[in-house]
Design a protein that fits this description.
With 141 residues, the chain is of the alpha+beta class. Helix content is 39%, strand content 20%. It has a single domain (4-138), classed as Alpha-Beta Plaits. Strands 2-3-1-4 form a 4-stranded antiparallel β-sheet, sandwiched between helices. It binds adenosine-3',5'-cyclic-monophosphate.
Length: 141
């Protein structure tokens, strides 16, 4: 059975710097995602650490959180049937070297860290990540 899901995506500083925002949002719309909310902002190192707290013990944590606080990002709340898995498919593999043709990371990512886009990986994570960036009243009905 298909269920309507919500997911959080971040267009990362590398993709914003490459003027890829319009192209990536077009991919969301062409692939059936409904945009419930969107904002451009810069986050602090501390905020990036909170967002990626699940990776705190990883060797790349410091570098990742420096990168994510290095420039503007665009965050979106998206809705679709099977949104979490479908977005991850559209994004492509975390490491762009393994990303399939036609995916966002294949087109825009340059390394496993500078990988253009983030998407929630499960329903519980999506709830946490959506509430990290958006208040309930900011989401379209
Ligand atoms: P993202 O989907 O945002 O989730 C966690 C991020 O950590 C991931 O994308 C990558 O940008 C980054 N990441 C994961 N593995 C590595 C790694 N081995 N080296 C550097 N960065 C990584």
């Amino acid at each position: 059975m298909k269920t309507l899901q919500r997911t959080l995506t971040i267009i990362k500083p590398d993709a914003v710097a490459k003027n890829a925002v319009g192209d990536i949002i077009e991919q969301f719309e062409k692939n059936g995602f409904r945009i419930l909310a969107i904002k451009m902002l810069e986050i602090s190192k501390h905020q990036a650490e909170q967002f990626y707290a699940v990776h705190a013990s990883r060797p790349f944590y410091s570098s990742l959180t420096n990168f994510m606080s290095s420039g503007p990002i665009v965050t979106l709340a998206l809705e679709k049937e099977n949104a979490i898995a479908d977005l991850r498919k559209l994004m492509g593999a975390t490491n762009p070297a393994n990303a399939e043709d036609g995916t966002i990371r294949k087109k825009w990512a340059s390394s496993i860290e500078h990988n253009a886009i983030h998407g929630s990986d499960a329903e519980e994570t999506a709830r946490f990540e959506l509430s990290f960036f958006f208040a309930g009243y900011e989401l379209a009905k």
